[in-house]
Specification:
The structure holds two protein chains of two kinds. By secondary structure, chain A is of the alpha+beta class. In chain A, 51% of the residues lie in helices and 14% in strands. Chain A has one domain: Winged helix-like DNA-binding domain superfamily/Winged helix DNA-binding domain (Arc Repressor Mutant, subunit A), CATH 1.10.10.10. In chain A, strands 1-3-2 form a three-stranded antiparallel β-sheet. The radius of gyration of chain A is 18 Å and the shape is elongated. The termini of chain A are far apart. In chain B, strands 3, 4, 5, 6, 7, 8, 9 and 10 form an eight-stranded mixed β-sheet that branches. In chain B, strands 15, 16, 17, 18, 19, 20, 21 and 22 form an eight-stranded mixed β-sheet that branches. Classes of the chains: A alpha+beta, B alpha+beta.
Chain lengths: 117, 875
């Protein structure tokens, strides 16, 4: 059996989408989903469909914008790109995640130092 | 905020957004398939893997909708659509439910509007909480006893420290009636003389023109008048140019200085049931020697309480009295908040009314609960099916509550319509002597109340079925055949309990209504001391230049002409009519020693010979007046029985000498006691003086005739005009209308409670019928079996009727106990009727029993007609 894939924490998908768009520029939904999967080393369990709920949410908050366009292989698709407000939000959320993961890392790295109790 | 807006927008653009999403998902899958193909998969496998990676399409769509729109609202819309479909399928149920609710809610809004107007809303004046009503003689006695002289008013105004201002008006309404001439037919109009600062102190701003100037309130000042808004509209066609013009009042030109706003209705606050047309300045110097003529209203300084004002007046009045030897009263004053003075007496009645209408709403809720429960049972398979298809229990309860809310909303809207009709009727009927009633309307507060009670009702009656659904075993229901057998015990017990409660509530209402109605009937049975039937009165006008020598012959001539008219049995003139207006003069037995404060204040009426006969009063001893009682002959008085036994206990007063306002006067007769102030109160001391020997306050011609007043009125007016062309048009009002007016508040409450009781009875009978009928339907098979086994028709009928009777008896038992308590509580509203009045209780029991019989008999008949063969084959 392969190692069980990671379930996504609430809210993490939004952050991943923002980061992907910030890094890659304008992308369509499938592109975003694939990038996230690739970037995570295929470790993230993603029902690709769920990305659309995240996209509409981010759009309504004004963090990303969407536009119908044509892909490289001439297919009509909706392209998303990050907005100025989105970048600000991304910076905030990323900083928060880094702090959190740092703290989690330290806590989990705690060794048995005080002897058994 | 931005997100909420976006969500709201999405909510209304569902279809285009869904299309957009679909196109996006299609593109997504196409990309995925393409990539998989590039990786070398077959077409079929590429597609399969793409779909697997995508996950559930429908699920993603749903997530998408939840994320972008308002999921709660979506569910609500679904529920509403579903409710609409269900109710449309069952139109008769929906109609009955909405109608019942509308009656209950409508009655509640209407009563709330009345309670709000009379009790809760502040008076329509500036800072009304500062206003205080001052009542002399501690508020006891007739109008002359509780009012003040100009001197007292002025002294109190000067010396008090509690009040910013004290204003006054002349409450002897009718004394100052005016004749309006020069504008069509001469007319009698009602006026109130008010102190110069009256309107300013109450915070009333004129609608047009200005208020009185100090100059206009002085003796010999320019004559001025303020018009009431409705009089201005009616009489002058709302012509603003009337301000500044002169009109003829009592043949004197008087300048109209302004028009008061529509919101100011003097009558509705201070003289319920009367309409005041115009306001004139009370010229203090003219009233100075007229005795107690002023009613006082004070405006307390900020921070002063009524108790403080009372404490001050308790000290101040004796001091003032000591300084003024000529005051003939000690003016011990009771201070009451103006609002309490206006509506305090109605507090209990209105609260009772409110409770009655609350009971109606409870009965309505119980009834609907019943209907819905029966429906729920019938729909249990539907719910089981929905549950099997994945609807959570919460979702189904929510659906049920949505249905109740929709029904309640429908009932609320329709009820609002009913209340609107009821309140505008109440506001315009104008004959009920309740304060502020003419200003009753459905306002914002009433709308709020509507929403509150509709919601409360929905939750109340929606709760029982919901609880049942959420508590029930749905799988069991799916399997159960449901029909034909005795229904589940719990279900029946729930329905039965509800009906028992319903009957109990109706029982309380019926007993209450019975007690109030009986009080009302007892009141109508009171011996008035005169015969109101076949007598009517009209205000007449004559010019005697204020001299008794001239007045006698004029009145004698008028009465001669009127008595000669065909159909007239008796005619007489009095300055005031009982139950209408009154005033007091001093009456004592000469030579008897009284307590210092006892002036023997008696109601005084100045009358002509023939008045007693026209009113249908009974002479008990002595003689009536005659035209030989002339200005210069011996002064004479007729007293009533109460005055006779008070001043001459155990003696025959006829022929003795009385002191009337200190003057020697011969008692020539004793007459029946007349209820002068109200039907409830015993008659006070009363005396009658001849028109030729005392100054009257106006003139009412009383005519006794078998002809209806409408017929007689026209020819009477012709007769009066033939004598005096200036005779103003005036209403020829039946004496009975005075009695009606006096009993109108009691009639108002008794009728309303009776209507509510009737409504309660109707609803309770519907409830009984519904439950019994439902039970019969459920037991068709069982009854069929019993009949197949030989049960007779009568036996089956008896069983069903007995079940109905059992419910009602239980309800009566609970209701009677509650009614006894309720009767105690309303004892203050009863008249000559005990709170345990057997007739009211017996009537209630009989009525409820009868209703139970009928409500039980109809389903019983149906049960007895069940054909055993069909019943057994069915299902």
């Amino acid at each position: 059996m392969a190692e069980k894939k990671l379930d996504l924490l609430q809210g993490t998908l939004d952050l991943m989408v923002l980061q992907t768009l910030a890094a890659m520029g304008s992308l369509h939904g499938y592109g975003i989903a694939r990038r996230i999967e690739q970037a995570s080393g295929e470790a993230v369990l993603l029902n690709q469909g769920t990305i659309y709920a995240s996209l509409v949410r981010l759009q309504q908050r004004g963090w990303i914008s969407a536009e119908w366009g044509t892909s490289d292989n001439n297919r009509k698709a909706k392209f998303y790109s990050i907005t100025q407000r989105g970048r600000k939000q991304l910076a905030e959320d990323a900083a928060y995640w880094e702090r959190l993961s740092g703290v989690m890392g330290r806590v989990l790295a705690m060794q048995n130092e005080g002897g058994d109790r | 905020m931005r997100e909420a807006l976006a969500r709201l927008r999405s909510f209304f653009r569902k279809a285009p957004l869904d299309r957009d999403l679909e196109a996006e998902m299609a593109a997504h899958l196409a990309f995925a398939v393409e990539e998989n193909l590039r990786r070398g998969l077959t077409q079929e496998e590429a597609r399969r893997q793409a779909l697997v990676r995508f996950g559930g399409v429908a699920q993603s769509q749903e997530e998408h909708r939840d994320a972008r729109g308002l999921p709660a609202l979506d569910v609500l819309m679904q529920d509403l659509r579903y409710t609409y479909r269900t109710l449309r399928r069952d139109r008769s149920f929906a109609a009955v439910a909405v109608l019942i609710l509308a009656l209950g809610i409508g009655a509640n809004i209407a009563v709330f509007s009345v309670v709000n107007t009379i009790l809760l809303r502040p008076l329509p004046f500036r800072d009304p909480q500062q206003l205080v009503w001052m009542s002399s003689n501690r508020g006891v006695g007739g109008l002359s006893a509780v009012t003040y002289t100009v001197s007292v008013y002025e002294e109190f105004l000067r010396h008090n420290r509690s009040f910013q201002d004290v204003t006054s008006y002349d409450p002897f309404l009718g004394d100052s009636d005016y004749k309006l001439t020069g504008r069509g037919e001469p007319q009698q109009i009602a006026a109130v003389p008010v102190a110069g600062d009256f309107f300013g102190m109450l915070g009333i701003k004129p609608f047009l023109g200005r208020l009185f100037t100090p100059e206009e309130c002085r003796k010999g000042g320019r004559a001025a008048v303020l018009l009431g808004y409705f009089f201005w509209q009616r009489q002058f066609g709302a012509d603003p140019a009337i301000v500044g013009q002169a009109i003829l009042l009592n043949d004197q030109p008087v300048t109209v200085v302004g028009v008061l706003p529509a919101s100011f209705d003097f009558g509705s606050v201070l003289a319920p049931g009367l309409k005041i047309d115009v306001y004139v300045p009370a010229v203090m110097d003219m009233l100075r020697n007229a005795g107690n003529t002023l009613a006082l209203i004070g405006r307390m300084k900020p921070g002063v309480t009524v108790a403080q004002a009372q404490a001050e007046v308790d000290i101040l009045m004796p001091q003032l009295r000591a300084a003024h030897k000529d005051w003939y009263d000690d003016y011990a004053t009771a201070m009451t908040e103006l609002k309490v003075h206006v509506s305090g007496k109605l507090h209990r009645s209105l609260v009772v009314l409110w409770c009655a209408v609350g009971l109606i709403l409870l009965i309505v809720c119980v009834n609907l609960s019943n209907l819905l429960l029966a429906r729920t049972a019938a729909r249990s398979k539907e719910f089981a099916m929905r549950s099997a298809l994945g609807a959570g229990r919460g979702r189904i309860v929510r659906q049920l509550l949505t249905e109740s809310l929709v029904l309640a909303a429908g009932g609320g809207v329709l009820g609002l319509g009913i209340a609107f009709g009821a309140t505008s009727y109440l506001a315009h009927q104008g004959s009920t002597a309740l304060p502020l009633l003419s200003t009753v309307r459905v306002d914002g507060a009433a709308l709020g109340w509507t929403v509150a009670i509709a919601l409360a009702a929905a939750v109340l009656f929606g709760l029982a079925p919901s609880l049942r659904i959420s508590g029930g075993n749905l799988q069991g229901v799916l399997k159960d055949s449901g029909h034909g057998m005795s229904a589940g015990l719990t279900h029946n017990r729930m329905l039965a309990t509800l009906v028992v409660w319903e009957v109990a509530l109706a029982c309380v209402l019926l007993v209450g209504a019975g007690l109030l109605l009986r009080s009302f009937l007892r009141l109508l049975d009171v011996d008035l001391g005169f015969q109101p039937g076949q007598a009517a009165a009209i205000k007449i006008d004559y010019n005697d230049e204020g001299k008794a020598e001239k007045r006698g012959p004029i009145l004698r001539e008028i009465l001669r002409r009127v008595s000669a008219m065909p159909g007239v049995q008796a005619a007489g003139v009095a300055d005031m009519l009982p139950l209408d207006r009154n005033r007091n003069w001093g009456l004592q037995a000469k030579g008897r020693v009284y307590r210092k404060e006892d002036f023997g204040a008696a109601f005084v009426y100045i009358v002509t010979p023939g008045y007693f006969g026209a009113m249908g009063m009974q002479m008990r001893a002595g003689r009536d007046f005659n035209w030989q009682d002339a200005p210069k002959s011996e002064r004479v008085v007729v007293i009533n029985q109460a005055a006779a036994s008070y001043h001459w206990p155990g003696q025959d007063p006829v022929g003795r000498t009385a002191l009337v306002n200190g003057k020697d006067t011969r008692v020539i007769g004793v007459i029946s006691d007349v209820r002068e102030s109200s039907l409830e109160e015993r008659s006070g001391l009363e005396m009658y003086l001849p028109e030729t020997q005392a100054d009257p306050e106006g003139a009412e011609l009383v005519v006794r005739s078998q002809l209806p007043p409408d017929t007689l009125g026209a020819s009477l007016m012709r007769t009066l005009r033939a004598y005096n062309p200036e005779q103003p048009a005036a209403e020829f009002r039946p004496i009975q209308s005075l009695v009606d007016h006096a009993v109108s508040p009691r009639r108002f409450f008794a009728m309303l409670v009776a209507i509510f009781a009737g409504l309660g009875l109707l609803l309770a009978s519907l409830g009984i019928y519904g439950v019994i009928s439902y039970a019969v339907t459920r037991q068709t098979q069982e009854i069929g079996i019993r009949m197949a086994l030989g049960a007779t028709t009568e036996r089956v009928q008896l069983d069903v009727v007995a079940r109905s009777m059992r419910l009602v008896l239980a309800g009566i038992a609970v209701g009677s106990v509650t009614s006894v308590a309720a009767g105690r509580w309303i004892v203050a509203l009863l008249f000559n009727t005990g709170p345990n009045d057997p007739a009211a209780f017996a009537g209630t029991v009989v009525l409820l029993g009868l209703v139970a019989l009928i409500a039980g008999y109809i389903p019983a008949r149906r049960a007895s007609r069940i054909d055993p063969m069909i019943a057994l084959r069915g299902n």
